[in-house]
TrEMBL record:
Pfam families: TK. GO terms for cellular component: cytosol. Coiled coil: none annotated. This is Thymidine kinase. Its EC number is 2.7.1.21. Keywords: ATP-binding, DNA synthesis, Kinase, Nucleotide-binding, Transferase. It is an enzyme of class 2 (transferase). It comes from Salinispora arenicola (strain CNS-205). Residues 1-30 are annotated as: Disordered. Substrate binds at V203, V204, V205, G206, Y216. GO terms for molecular function: ATP binding; thymidine kinase activity.
Length: 234
């Protein structure tokens, strides 16, 4: 098997992990079938990717083994990067990638996989979210997904909507992001040539830096609806 199986592959029979015990628990001491799908969401600049890398670090230092995946990272490369300078290599989730095959192929090679860290999960396909749920339910793999909830039009991303529907735990990241007015920032405005735009492709790579040709700015609902980027924005 390869890592790039099709996203609509048939349901796979669950093989026994090399480290799995017939009863009681796995090698890491956790009871079997106790895995969960968790979705952590928030606006841009709230530290989602930083939290994803911290989660991976915490699990790895306790002897657990996992994979880090991403899709359309700001670096445009197969890695998770953060605005505070952290970076970690990752597997790019292309449309054809089947997350179940990604895990089972590694296990077939004798590599234990206990968890997945899925950064930029809002940009994944709905099929990938279904695969996350199956990895939890049928393969006893913990899945930690991190991503935006809404796009620049304030509409839910399809994958985010499915994560809200399927996840065992949904949590908003508690790092507060502020609008220029001091209110809580809720919505991601796309800014082109100094103006808030509300039409265009759902996913366009940009950053929050003011020097970016296409940038994003987190606004409160009031100023998002008004298209007001604050003093000196023009």
């Amino acid at each position: 098997m390869t890592d790039h199986a099709t996203a609509d592959s048939p349901r796979l029979a669950r093989p026994r992990r090399p480290d799995e015990q017939p009863a009681g628990g796995g090698a890491d001491g956790r009871p079997l079938h106790a895995a969960a799908l968790r979705f952590y969401w928030g606006p841009m600049d709230c530290g989602k990717s930083t939290m994803a890398l911290q989660m991976n670090h915490n699990h790895a230092r306790q002897g657990r083994r996992g994979l880090v995946t991403t899709r359309i990272d700001r670096s445009l490369g197969p890695q998770v990067t953060t605005r505070i300078g952290l970076a970690h290599e990752a597997i790019e989730v292309i449309d054809e990638l089947d997350l179940r095959v990604l895990v089972t192929s590694r296990r077939a090679e004798g590599v234990r996989i206990d968890y997945l860290i899925c950064d930029e999960a809002s940009f994944y396909q709905i099929a990938h979210v279904e695969q996350m749920a199956e990895l939890v339910d049928s393969y006893d793999v913990d899945v930690y997904a991190f991503g935006l909830a809404t796009d620049f039009r304030s509409r839910l991303f399809p994958a985010a909507r499915r994560l809200f529907e399927l996840a065992d735990t949904v949590a908003r990241i508690q790092v507060e992001v502020l609008c220029w007015c001091g209110r809580e920032g809720l919505l991601n405005a796309r800014v082109v040539n100094g103006q808030v735009v509300r039409e265009g492709a759902q996913v366009v790579v940009g950053d929050t830096a003011y020097t970016a040709q296409v940038r994003y700015q987190v606004l409160c609902r009031r100023h998002y609806r008004a298209g007001d980027l604050g003093p000196g924005s023009g």
